[in-house]
Amino acid sequence: MAEHLASIFGTEKDRVNCPFYFKIGACRHGDRCSRLHNRPTISPTLLLSNMYQRPDMITPGIDAQGQPLDPHKIQEHFEEFYEDIFEELNKFGEIESLNVCDNLADHMIGNVYVLFKEEDQAAAALQALQGRFYSGRPIIADFSPVTDFREATCRQFEENNCNRGGYCNFMHVKLIGRDLRRKLFGRYRGYRVSRSRSRSRSVSPRKRERDYDRRERDSRDRDRDRDRDRDYRGNGRRNDKYDREGGRKRHGSPVREGSEERRARIEQWNREREEKQ
């Protein structure tokens, strides 16, 4: 029974825990959801809810006065926002991923997800964002359970054929240009840029960007794994790191768990709680 519950945790078959909150960190039912939203007390990922205010918020491609907007102006507005947020959050540590939702549903519109390399970096950023405002609006930040954006993003949207449009319950991630991505993420060790000169004309720009993102993510994952192997030598314990500012030792965040490990850990907690009762 315990193995069965662990295997279905966070899936549609789980009648106790909300699968959408588990995968996306947001649910259209909010606090009225009939299933549990297990909010993490610590996570490398922060969710800044409804932070990005797109200029065509009411009707896509149309401004508040009913006039059509130039798509280039919309993208320019977004990239200015993206760079502004990145530079501010980068003060707290290395950013592995910064995703902004292009969805239109209330629980996802303008959501910003930032994945830090370490959990303590995310905690420092969360503390610093408390009580702050952006463009006259309060910043609503919290830890998010999402650590694998491949499970959270809409694959149909990536293929440009999602029939639910902006009201899809999976992330429609708004993309930035290659030059801006190189400028922001290129400062980190392990960042790679494709130098292929030949590209097929039949490949869509979205697919090229998606392939580029996949290559970038795989490259950074390999570098992170190499670092982890160096840190876990001998008896498997991680080497101590020194805080450059204070000169004292501190420990990095634990290795990030996958979905199966998280399900098993939660099931173990449930068994221990039942035994105590």
TrEMBL record:
Superkingdom assignment: Eukaryota
Zn finger limits (C3H1-type): 12-40, 148-175
InterPro entries to which the protein is assigned, alphabetical: Nucleotide-bd_a/b_plait_sf, RBD_domain_sf, RRM_dom, RRM_euk-type, U2AF_small, Znf_CCCH
Record's GO cellular component terms: U2AF complex
GO BP term (any one): photoperiodism, flowering
Gene3D superfamilies reported in the protein's UniProt record: 3.30.70.330
CDD domains cross-referenced by the UniProt entry: RRM_U2AF35B
Domain RRM, first and last residues per copy: 44-146
This protein's UniProt keywords: DNA-binding, Metal-binding, mRNA processing, mRNA splicing, Nucleus, Repeat, RNA-binding, Zinc, Zinc-finger
Any one Gene Ontology molecular-function term assigned to this protein's record: DNA binding
Domain C3H1-type: 12-40, 148-175
Pfam families: RRM_1 (PF00076), zf-CCCH (PF00642)
Compositionally biased tracts (Basic and acidic residues): 206-246, 257-277
Classification via PROSITE patterns: RRM, ZF_C3H1
Primary location group: nucleus
Compositionally biased region (Basic residues): 195-205
Cellular compartment(s): Nucleus
Region called Disordered, residue ranges: 195-277
Family classification: Belongs to the splicing factor SR family.
Physiological role: Necessary for the splicing of pre-mRNA. Probably active at the 3' splice sites.
Protein name: C3H1-type domain-containing protein
